[in-house]
Amino acid sequence: QVQLVESGGGSVQTGDSLRLTCIVSGRDLDDYMMGWFRQTPGKEREFVAALLWSNVLPYYADAGRSVNGRFTISRDRDKNTMFLEANTLKAEDTAVYFCAAGTLKFWNEGTARNPNNYDYWGQGTQVTVSS
Residue 124: what are its φ and ψ, rounded to 5°? Predict the structure, then answer.
């Protein structure tokens, strides 16, 4: 069992930055991959970024989906915390952001991007970007 609690969302202006935090609790976290997804009403959950809790090795959403280069995923093992640094925010980044954990079987971009590979989800934190 893994428990996840997100925080750090809010209402910001275009071009601002936010740091989303996910507090992670559970055992044997090195057996898990961790990810950030986002969702807007009426749309499917969209992959943002993911890493291995053991040694990071991150993946990010395609450049064409606009997050690459602006978002950075990281984790602090001592504090059992995962972060998503979101810079130069745009209106289209407005969404509920979720952190998730999945049992690691093998690590590649396809595995990281698929929300069906994640077993545990937080409650989400709202990010609203206005111009």
Answer: 95, 155
Q: The tokens of 31 are what?
A: 């057996």
Contact present, 1 and 101 (Cβ < 8 Å): no
Walk along the chain (131 residues) and give the pLDDT tens digit of each residue. 999 999 999 999 999 999 999 999 999 999 999 999 999 999 999 999 999 999 888 888 864 455 668 999 999 999 999 999 999 999 999 999 999 999 998 899 899 999 999 999 999 999 999 98
108 contact partners, CB below 8 Å, separation of at least 6: none
CA distance 80 to 92: 30
Alpha helices in 10-50 (DSSP H): none
Query: Strand 10-13 and strand 71-76: pairing?
Result: unpaired
| 101 Cβ contact partners less than 8 Å away, ≥ 6 residues apart | 2, 4, 24, 26, 29, 32, 33, 34, 35, 53, 118, 119, 120
* DSSP track, 53-89: TTTEEEEE--GGGT-TTTEEEEEETTTTEEEEEE-S-
